[in-house]
Design goal:
By secondary structure, the protein is mainly alpha-helical. The chain has two domains: 1-33; 35-78. It is built from two helices and two strands; from the N terminus they run ββαα. The chain has helices at 36-49, 55-76; strands at 2-3, 10-11. Strands 1-2 form a two-stranded antiparallel ribbon. Bound molecules: zinc ion. Residues 4, 6-7, 9, 18, 20-21, 23 line the site of zinc ion.
Length: 78
């Protein structure tokens, strides 16, 4: 059930308009559903705090680059 923001009438989840007052129903974000804007802000803040890459991530990326270079070399060296 969704509570109408205008008249506090309990409306069915599928309702687009409040059956009591006819106003559109706003689905207020549920607390356990992450707000993606907030999440992005949180991630940005986390990135500011930490180093850009952890040493482990840097090693993984270095390995991937090396592997890609190797693959490219095997393809183009024919
Ligand atoms: Zn209403």
């Amino acid at each position: 059930m969704i509570t109408c923001a205008y008249c506090c009438h309990e409306c069915p989840d599928s309702a687009q308009l409040c059956p009591k007052c006819g106003k559109p129903i706003f689905r207020l974000p549920v607390d356990d559903t992450p707000n993606y804007d907030d999440l992005a802000q949180e991630l940005l803040r986390e990135t500011d705090k930490k180093e850009l890459l952890s040493p482990k991530q840097a090693i993984i990326i270095a390995c991937m680059v090396l592997l890609l270079a190797l693959v490219a070399y095997t393809i183009f060296a024919r």
